[in-house]
Specification:
With 242 residues, the protein is mostly helical. Helix content is 73%, strand content 0%.
Length: 242
């Protein structure tokens, strides 16, 4: 279990109360917001272009694999992801302006872990199929692309109003369309970022959820499970809760 200083609780309380009570627009928009969107064909091409020199015939094979990936993702979107988003909508409807109960939050975040894990598994199967199809020479480049996608997917699922999208230095570098000699000059740095940032971003995504749950557990133990935005905006009431 993670432990947080009392000084950090006001910020976490705001996150926890706002998460399902205020961010109405984040729900009901497909998978975006709390669940990673599928890796699109254009984004796939941009990732592989970073690390591989592929023939037109290779791209045709990749497109076929990607079609299967999107079909699998559609099944996931119409099933578990839709169910997860429905839970979020139901929590909003039943807890307007009020922090959901600990049991509700635990159920919601269990669902989040499940659907995000399912997206990761679809991604893993996609990249494994590409590796097997393109052969040994492409394995390293495909693996580098896989690591970038893993980091981007976890960044897209960070909760609590935090955003890690478009903040990675390697993405900034590639957005400038660097020349081959520029890539070669910083390739060791890029490899370091690619290998380390997925783990760090995942830690932020999971840690944010655990922080919200820890606040809910503390409030529940103290008898303040029904805390609302109005409670936290009321100076006397807020101090009592804290």
């Amino acid at each position: 279990m993670q432990h947080h200083s009392m000084a950090s609780l006001p910020r976490l309380l705001v996150i926890a109360v706002a998460l399902l009570g205020i961010r109405t627009a984040a729900f009901g928009q497909g998978a975006s917001g709390e669940v990673p969107d599928p890796l699109g064909l254009r984004a796939t091409g941009e990732l592989f272009d970073r690390y591989l020199e592929l023939e037109d015939s290779d791209w045709l094979l990749i497109e076929a694999i990607h079609d299967d990936y999107l079909a699998d993702f559609e099944t996931l979107r119409n099933g578990p992801i839709a169910d997860f988003l429905k839970v979020g909508r139901e929590l909003r409807a039943s807890n307007t302006g009020m922090m959901p109960s600990l049991k509700q939050l635990e159920g919601y975040f269990d669902g989040w872990r499940s659907v995000v894990g399912s997206v990761h598994r679809l991604d893993e199967r996609f990249f494994a199929s590409v590796k097997a199809t393109l052969g040994e020479e492409a394995v390293e480049g495909v693996e580098r692309a896989r690591l970038v996608r893993r980091r981007q997917a976890d960044a897209a699922s960070v909760m609590g109003g935090l955003s890690l999208r478009d903040t990675s230095l390697d993405d900034v570098f590639w957005s400038m369309t660097p020349a081959a000699e520029e890539v070669a000059a910083v390739d060791d740095v890029l490899r370091g970022l690619e290998s380390s940032t997925p783990r760090l971003v995942r830690a932020v995504a999971v840690g944010t959820v655990e922080s919200i749950l820890e606040v809910a557990r503390r409030l529940d133990r103290a008898g303040y499970g029904g805390v609302t935005e109005a409670d936290m905006n009321d100076g006397d009431r807020g101090r009592e809760i804290m």
